[in-house]
Structure prediction request, 725 residues.
Amino acid sequence: MKAEDISWVKSPEFGVMDQIFLPAIFTGMVTTLTHMGNTLFSSKDVVTQQFPEQRPNLPANYRGVHRLNRDDEGRVKCVACYMCSTACPAHCIDIVAAPSPWPDREKYPEVFVIDELRCIYCGMCEQACPVDAIELTTLYDLTGHSREEMIFNKEKLLSVFDKTVAMGTDPVRTTHGRLGVASEPASRGVTGSSSMQT
Amino acid sequence: MATVYINDKAVDIGDKKLNLVQAAELAGVTIPHYCYHPALSVVASCRMCLVEVGEKKPDGTVVMQPRVIPACQTPAKDNTVIQTATAKSKSAQAQTLESILLNHPLDCPVCDKAGECKLQDYSYNYGNSESRMVDEKNTPPNKPDLGNNISLFTDRCIMCSRCVRFTREISGTAELHVVNRGVVDLCPVGALASKDFLYTHRVWNLKTQDSVCAGCSTGCSIHLDTNKNVVYRLRPRENPNAQGYFMCDDGRLGYHYVNSSNRISKPHMKSESGADLSSWKDILPTLRAELNAVALKNPAGIAVMLSPFLTVEEGFLLATFIKSISHKSKLVLGPVPVIGEDDHYPKTRSSVAPQVKFTIRNEKCPNKKGIEQIIKHFEGDVIHVADYLSKNTPEALFIAAGYQGEEVSWFDNNLLELFKKVKLLITQDLFPSALTDVSKYVIPSAAFSEKEGTFVNFAGLAQELHWACVPLKQVRTDGQVYLDLLERKGLLQAANIRDEIAKSIPYFSKLAGGKLESNGVHLENIS
Prediction:
């Protein structure tokens, strides 16, 4: 770097008014009192929310607690392909596959467990899933009394689905329309829209 | 001397009779193929190996044939030129794949073959990403109970007919479209699935270790697939010295005892005062002291039974230990399980016996030959334990059993009665039995998947076992126990022991240096 490239900035010189600080204090107090007045006497421009009585409206792509989606008949959508557990960087998903009791698919998860404490909520499982069976919801205030309680099994993950559906807070994939089986366009016998349309 | 040019690279194939797939393999070039298998006849039906072929004329010019031809069906001769990477070859490969995939379902996520599927690999390397098929895919019904051990996913089949040719040429059972033996390994796609492995695991989570099947004295080379210390499947490993390309279902499915929860999990010593010992720290010195006391009283009072399931190293270490206690102690061979007759394949209905391509031996143990040679070295001749015990009653008997398998007991009642006559019984085995109930010392044994060492098969082929799982917390591998009894420091290094054996026993001299090739070493000179 050359010397002429450097431009030196001088701090403004302190005048008498600056040296007594009172004008600056008054300017600051005006801002404070304006906000106080707004909060007390008008509902306009209030940013504070009264949690937990008031709940924030989170965007649909928020990455909170997982849910296992159900299909139209209420069965678990998951086909136990292990893609999510393979993609998971935290190794928090455990699946045990079994032959499915239904004729329209070969495999289903007998056991599906997510350790919610181990999870880093990165959303890789959601992206890896070829049948859109796992999604991250907007539920964020996850608490429990023990570590065991935070290990979610299939039933618990399905109940998160029921809960979020009842609340009307479906995650982004579901709200954007159902995806088909991976890379099978809709015209080939798969109901719903295809991945090409999302 | 013949020279073949593969993608402009000259390869000398000598006098070998090869087809172009094999010749290209020598040059390090893979020509994709489905229906061709080195152990089966050539049908050239899948068309995956289509390549451009030509000839180099004496004057140096190259004349290519105008059309692509199947490499598996074309013999390699002098001056053959193969081009696998030209536009013509590549488009042939891509078009073949597109046609194979016309009716193939895209159910890779639920297919057990995913991860080791040739369709996936070739589609990725040679195929198009899109299909131009506009019609509905043909979805024939699956046959989940094709055989006792095999499930057929008909829609995934690409009609390579490997399985059909296997049943005709190798097993000789010729079920035209019904297959039941060892065929799952042949299927290049996910159409034939092993019921035993079906849906249990995804293949990319498995760790593979080279090993040897302990099911019979053929000693098939295998891959042991494990994850988190659990054996999930056994697969044949190609080895021309041992069995070739295949393995039998008894071996393939006979590993479940390894994962059994009934296995002896810790050492145990019964004492008269009732203060039983169950830690290695206490048991090993007590055992050594007790054997020394017996030897002091009666030098010929100790006998050792070596089972044909021990590795050569284990047999050698235990023999060395016992001989160091008393050189008059006796080594005998344990019962050798034999079931029926040798089972040769292919089967035939004609009176002319065909050339045997695969044999399941009736001797259901992996290392009888190796243990016999150890005993011969120390004793001069091999005596069976039942013969020995019916004439002698030693004061102490160390039974190094380690018999693999859970359901069948390796001793009969007569032998048990003979065992019971011995005052001090030391039993090392995998599973609790009537024998362990009456033994003073019970020492856990390790399964073949947990130890390293050498098995010598029926023909004198020495092959190396590698450990793929860690034994249970309180189980030490048999070899380690003997090493500890010998008060030799450190962990068992099979290669070092092998070198030691090679130096002291002439039969094993070819093991000198301790390193064993993955295909094994023939210890006997074969004519």
About this structure: The CA atoms of residues 1 and 7 of chain A lie 12 Å apart. Chain A touches chain B through 20 residues (CB under 8 Å). The first helix of chain A runs from residue 16 to 20.
